[in-house]
Amino acid sequence: MSHPAPKHSENDHLWVRSYAPGVAWDISVPDQPLFTFFDKTVERFPDRPAIHFGGHVYDYRTVNQLVSRAAKGLQEIGVGKGVKVGLFMPNTAYSVIMYYAALKAGGTVVNYNPVYIERDLIVQADDSETDIIVTVDLPPLVDKIKALLEKTRIRKAIVCPVKQNLSSTTKTLDLPAIGTKDAWLWFSDITRNDGKFSPAAINPSEDVAVLQYTGGTTGIPKGAMLTHRNLVANTIQIGQWYAGAEDGKDSMIAVLPLFHVFAMTVVMNMSIMKGMELFIMPQFTVPELLELIKKEKPAYVAAVPTMYIAMANYDRIGEYDFSSIKFCLSGGAPLPADVKRVYEQRTKAKLVAEGYGLTECSPVVTCNPISSKARAGSIGLPIPGCLVEIVSLEDGKTVLATGEKGEICISGPQVMKGYYKNPVETANVLRDGRCHTGDVGYMDEDGFVYIVDRVKDLILVGGYNVYPRHVEEVIYAHPAVEECIVAGVSDKLRGEAVHAWVKLKAGESVSVDTLRAWLHDKLSPIELPKKIHIRNEPLPKTAVGKLSKRDLLVQEGIQKR
Q: Helix crossing, 305-312 with 286-296: angle to 10°?
C-alpha cells in the first residue's frame, strides 16, 4: 500500500522556518484519481490555451474532448483496470492527451524512453506486461514498435501523426506488415467516437497510475509502482512550492522529456493542476529555447543542469530578455554552484539551485526555497508533507543529528507502492517505514539538505572515502571547464584511484598539467585526480540530458565494483 504522510506538526521540523512566504508544511492529499486535476482545470478554464505544439494552440476544452474520445477508444480495444498502456514518443501534444486518456480508461501508463535500443525495450515490455503502446509516425520509432509487436506480448500499436493538427485523419506513412491487420491503429481511429467512455472505479491509494522504470542502485531496470495518490500528493507538494503561480494565468516550457518522472510531475501534472499553458518542445536546442522565451514570455522553465550549462555558455545569451520568467528550476542532477552563478549573471533570471528527487518518490523530495534563503550547493528543504531523515550507514536505522553524514531516507505520501513483481528489491528499499535512497548526505541546523554522494559512487582510496561530487564541484570552478565526471578506477596500490573526465568550453585550451596544478591546493592529496582525461567531444548523457557516469565508464571499458 502507499505510504501515508508523516504525522508531525510544523513545530517538529526545523526546516519549516526556512520556507518561502506562502509555503506551509501541512498539506491535505485528497483521495482522488490523478486525472481529477485535469478535470477541474477544464471546468475552471475551458477557453484557456493548454498546449502549444507544432505551430498549433489547443485550449483546455479541445484537449478534454480529445482525451475523452481517446479514453473511449482505448476502452473499445480492451483497456481497463490495470491494463498497461505504453507511451513511446518524444514530447508532443499526444504525450499529454494519451497520458490522461489511458488513466481515465482505467489503465496504467508505462513510460518508455524512445532512444532505447530494441533489447532494452523488449525487457521493459515483458517485465511491465504492456499490452498496448502509443507512438508517433517517425520511421525509426515505428520500426522499433514493429519489433515489439513481433517479439513481446504487445498486441496493438497506436500511431499519432506528429506534424499534423490533432484533428487530422491523414495517414502519413505506410505501416509495416505485422501479425493481424488490426495490430496498427491511427490516433484518428480511436478518437472517432462521441467521447462517452465508462468512468473507471479508481482506488487512489492502491491503483497504480504509472509504472515508471528506473535503473536504481543495481543498474537493473525496475518498475516503480506510483499510485494515483502518490502522484496526486507530489503534484500538490510541488504546487505548494510554486506558491506564487497564478492559477489560469502562468505558463511553463516543457522541454524536458515528459516520459521522465521529473518532467511528468513538475512540468505536466503540476502545470495542468495550476491551469498553465504548456509550450511543448520535442527536443532541446539553445537557439530554439531562447526564441521561444523571446516570443512567448513564459513564467517558468524546468530543466537539468546540462541545459543550463549550454545556455550559460551560449555566446548570444545576453541578447535575450528573461524578465517574464519568475524562476528557473533545476533538477535531475547536481547543479554546480559556478553554473548557477554564471547563468544568473548572464540572464538575470533566478535559477533555483536545486531540487532533488528519485523515481521512487514520484519524484520530488526537496527543493530550495523561492526566496533569499536559498543556499547554493544544497538540494534544499524537505517539501511539505515529506519527512527527510539522515540515517546511520552502519545500522541503517539510527537517525543522526544535524551535520552528521548518513543515508538520506524519505517517508511521505509520494513514496511508491513498491517495485512491480520485485518483492526482494522492494523490501531492500522500503524498510522501517522509510524509503532508503542510497544517497549519502547531511542536514544543517536550518533544515537544508546536502548530498555528499551516492553510496555506490564513493571512491575508496587507501581506505579513505572520496566523494566524486565534491571533486566535480572544485573542477567546475575552473573557468575553462564545461562538463566534468569523476569516478573511481581500480588501482593495485590504493584499491581505487580518482579519475576525472573533462570537456572544455568552446575556444578554451588547458593542458592536463595546468589543470592539475590549479587543483593542487584545492583538493586533498587523496582527492586529487590521479588521471585527468580531457575530451574534445561532449560527455555522454541520458535521454533527459543528465551526465551519465554509467555510460562513460562503459565507453572507457571500466567496470565498477
A: 80
